[in-house]
Amino acid sequence: MTSLPSCSRTILSLFHNLSINSRKFDQIFFKKNLIGKHFLCTVSEGTIIFDRETKRIQRNRAAQLDDYDVCQYVKDEIAYRVADKVFDLTKFNDICIDIGCGSGHIATNLIKENVGVIIQCDMSAGLIRRSRGAADPEVPVLSVIADESMAPFREKSADLVVSSLSAHWINDLEKWFSRCLSILRPDCPLIGAMLANETLYELRIALQLAEMERLGGIGLHISPFVRADDVGSLMSQAGFGMITLDTDELTVGYPNIFALLYDLQGMGESNALRNRSAHIRKDILIAADTIYRSMFSRDDAPCPATFQIVSFIGWRPGPLMPKPAKRGSQKASFKDISKFVEGKVSFPDDHNPKIGKE
To answer: Which residues form the Methyltransferase type domain (predicted)?
Structure first.
């Protein structure tokens, strides 16, 4: 996401008079259905964008922070949503593999009615050690320390694969989706979420303007993110069927840019671009904070930060895979939705299959 200098804590200490731990937890805003709205260039196959070893080190450092749990609000929220989709499945999942599990954000929401065994995989040993297991103590949780971009599991070994806010750091997403497909048994789903291209656009703009003003150029401080509609194309190319996508925008209010940078480090989400800028000058950060406030400040949030989330579900094809309803099989029309909501008509039923009476 964003670059934080190696001496980040030293820099933050220079601004000890600024509050960095007063996030607006009571002010989180959502925007729905944004697929296809924005554009971002793509890269050629085989291009190495992210330094995976740097990302492993960042995650391990984050896991060592005393206030690690305080910084996990975004990951906890999105993991809850992924787990909520698991509850919508009508089938029981004997083996669930969580790829890029972090400290076990998804597992803490799953119970024995959903899954039999959870296998967690992450390249950060520090985060794995922080895992608290499943919400239900009767669900065993096994941990594997391995690079989640390789998805190192046997073919057709899982009934469910989940992933939350990890895949946006993978260099070859098409290959990763193909590996996830191979792990799944027929008629079984992949359910996940990742950051999309509008994430932290406010921070990106503020840093770019500050550097242009003082340096006459810009550095690589914000990672590129995948376009939401590209995720569907990649999953389709990998072989998934019945693909479902949706996007949300989660906006968190921060008192200043330094609080945002600190929390990104605590999430293990500092910049890991292979060709990232080595550092950010102190005067650039101060200028960026001023620009951020002048351009994006709101009454309820001096520095609002946007996290755009693309959620996805895809099924490995099989004879029992869910299929879309036949055209014309609906019992009601979209034009009648307002009547249902207002209670002017009853919902369709077996006795009156088309539409209820007013």
So the answer is: 97-187
